[in-house]
Amino acid sequence: MQWHSLGEFLAMGGYAFYVWGSFGATAAALGIEAALLRARRRQALRQAALPEELMP
Amino acid sequence: MSPATKINWFRFASPQSFYPLAGRLWPLFALLAAGFALAGLWVAFFMAPVDAQQGQGYRIIFIHVPAAWMAMLLYVVMAAWAAVGLVFNLRLASMMASALAPTGALFALLSLWTGALWGKPIWGAWWVWDARLTSTLILFFLYLGFLALQAAIDDPRRADRAGALIALVGLVNVPIIYFSVTWWNTLHQGASVSMARSPSMAGSMLWGMLLMVMACWMYAVAAGLSRVRSIILERERHADWVKDAVAQSR
Predict the structure, then answer these.
(1) Cα–Cα distances in angstroms (integers) from residue B205 to residues A10, B211, B248, in the given order
(2) ipTM over the 0.90 cut-off
(3) Which of A46, B31, B66, B122 is the most buried (most CB within 10 A)?
(4) Is the pTM of this model over 0.90?
(5) How far B230 CA lies from chain A's nearest CA (Å)?
(6) What is the pLDDT of residues B64-110, one digit of tens each?
(7) In the Cβ-directed half-sphere of B205, how many Cα atoms lie within 13 Å?
(8) Where are chain B's structural domains?
(9) Nearest 5°: phi and psi at B65?
């Protein structure tokens, strides 16, 4: 183990902004995509459940 | 092989039979992605040693390289599905191409974003008009072009054909990205991992990177399979089997 404290780990040797900015943005982007996928599925199910004459 | 044991793979070329299969498969791939990500992040942050030149800042490599690889790989897979859909007039293949495009665009954007955050402390610049960076930006725009073109055309099969054309023309950009660091004198460093020679990095660094690549790969498969289910529902909404499937999912 190369980290002696949580603070040292979070500081990333002075590169905290760059390292956490990269990993954080990736986590956020994948989380947003998962939410969009869920929303699209709900929308598709709603649309497919409409009666034929109301369907776009 | 007797006819009884032979699996008819073409059965899964129909959206109706692929829809439930994709529904069973995507959670499996999502689980694999989470497992690989946990292992990869552990190796990346707790096992890989500090870099002699770049200190802890080099750890961006564990997300930057997988994102950049996935952006290129997904483009090739997307173009391949689009070509199959075009040549064999296979609707499901075209739907797979459309399902992969947003995830590919996302990984292209992430490779540019993480690259900027790596370039700033190491090169002193967020962005340079270097061959590798510029061709990756073009890759991102190709994804956006594919998505915009498909969104602009109402008839799905015409949208598929137009999208396939842009995907196939843009395919020429992928080898340009890959070889850009050898063809031009670039600021971007050369390949860290190559088939021809042993990798120029410590074992744990390589393992961390490969685990993260697997995580991104499994994630992309899960996202693609999940999205193609919605695309199938949207496009086949007038079919009777869709009405049954929707009724069952309520």
Answers:
(1) 20, 10, 47
(2) yes
(3) B66
(4) yes
(5) 5
(6) 999 999 999 999 999 999 999 999 999 999 999 999 999 999 999 99
(7) 16
(8) 60-190+203-249
(9) -65, -45
